[in-house]
Design brief:
With about 400 residues, the protein is α/β, with parallel strands linked by helices. The chain contains 17 helices and 13 strands. It has a seven-stranded parallel beta sheet with strand order 3-2-1-4-5-6-7, sandwiched between helices. The radius of gyration is 21 Å and the shape is globular. The two termini are about 15 Å apart.
């Protein structure tokens, strides 16, 4: 009687993790076409062949941000966790891969450990920034951590987590200035914009809660600058997780802001400067060579918790990798007048713009490296490195 094929379970609870997970699954299929894939994911993972026990696109527990939103959805989150635990118990996969979504996934990792299922954490929790005590939990329940930020490895080693590999950042194999040039030419042609038109990428965030706090000052800042420089234009991609028509209706046509459905990468590649909410878009901008200002406005309770618990002093991912790379406008500093002033400097003052571009190039260089090991040396990108580590962890 032949042995059943290997089975890998994925646990992914948000859109960015779904995209990373899909690319990893594709790399795994190239390693071994017989592996079966089950678990929790979204559209991208499903398209690559994941059989979803939990579809987070439909679940009320997935893709949440903000303490209030999480509290309101605890029942749905628990239901998803129960479903995934039942899947592990019933299916007994040979490996569990968890991607981001830390509180949920660390609980699931404990269940896997109790069932004798090895666990790989890809894009693990940022324990070096806050709630450092979770590293003890991870040492017990996670077999290997695949890290995507160069500063993480030292923290893991310092705290005795030796099975951690810096695999490089996934964007290093996807985004670069050549890609940006192609996207810039295409979108500007579609919009009828010549190369002399100054274009500003406006990214207010991808979740309803944060949009309530970020969209208004962002638009007001843009309008202030538009009054002074009528020829500038803005491009604002609305995340696919948001109701497009509802958000688009809040943006007046007279502002000459181009509204896109999704296409955040095209917006970043086509722009001359950006004003971006803190998050993944900051790293995308760095790889695409776009100078930008980061801004964010959090709720009062979130601000209090961050001040009490978070140890980092800067919050943009590029500043965490290379301190002082770009300007951060947080809370009251993210005012319309300040947004307009800083964008004006980036657009028209090469003395301000040049150093930021140089800083971002350093960030890209740091993110393009990886730990040299027997498994990673012959793998051309982060996903294939993680795939090789994953196959090495498979357990009958």
């Amino acid at each position: 009687m032949s042995e059943r094929p290997f089975c890998i379970a994925f646990s992914v609870g948000e859109a960015s993790g779904d995209e990373h997970g899909a690319r990893l699954l594709r790399a795994l299929k190239a390693q071994d076409s017989t592996i079966e894939y089950v678990g929790m994911g979204g559209q991208h993972l499903r398209e690559e062949g994941l059989r979803t026990a939990v579809d987070f696109d439909r679940s009320k527990g997935g893709s949440l941000m903000g303490f209030g939103a999480v509290l309101k959805s605890l029942r749905a989150i628990k239901a998803d966790l129960d479903t995934m635990r039942s899947l592990l118990l019933r299916r007994r996969p040979n490996l569990l891969i968890i991607i981001d979504y830390p509180d949920f996934n660390l609980r699931l990792a404990k269940t896997a450990y109790q069932l004798g299922i090895p666990v790989l954490a890809f894009i693990p929790p940022k324990v070096w920034a806050w709630r450092k005590g979770r590293i003890r939990f991870m040492k017990k329940y996670i077999n290997h951590a695949a890290l995507i930020l160069p500063n993480e490895k030292a923290f893991y080693v310092k705290h005795g987590f030796v099975n951690a590999t810096y695999v490089g950042h996934p964007f290093a194999s996807i985004l670069n200035k050549a890609v940006a040039a192609g996207m810039r030419q295409k979108l500007r042609a579609q919009l009828g914009l010549d190369e002399q038109t100054k274009l500003i990428a406006l990214l207010p965030g991808s979740r309803r809660g944060e949009l309530k706090r970020t969209l208004r000052p962002l638009l007001q800042g843009y309008r202030l600058l538009k009054r002074k420089y009528p020829s500038i234009k803005g491009v604002l991609p609305i995340a696919t997780s948001l109701p497009f028509e509802e958000v688009a209706a809040k943006i007046r046509k007279s502002d000459e802001i181009v509204v896109l459905k999704g296409e955040s990468l095209s917006a970043l590649a086509s722009a001359d400067v950006g004003i971006l909410k803190s998050g993944t878009s900051n790293l995308q901008a760095a790889f695409l060579g776009l100078p930008f200002v980061m801004f964010y406005r959090a709720s009062k309770i979130a601000e209090w918790i961050v001040k009490a618990a978070v140890k980092v002093k800067e919050f943009s991912p590029v500043n965490i990798i290379r301190p002082g790379s770009i300007l951060e406008l947080l809370q009251k500093d993210a005012s319309p007048s300040r947004i307009a002033r800083e964008l004006e400097l980036l657009l028209f003052d090469e003395g301000a713009r040049g150093p930021i571009k140089a800083n971002l190039e350093e960030v890209v260089t740091l993110l393009s490296g990886f730990d040299s090991t027997e498994l990673t040396n012959n793998a051309p990108n982060a996903y294939e490195r993680v795939a090789k580590i994953s196959v090495g962890l498979l357990k009958r």
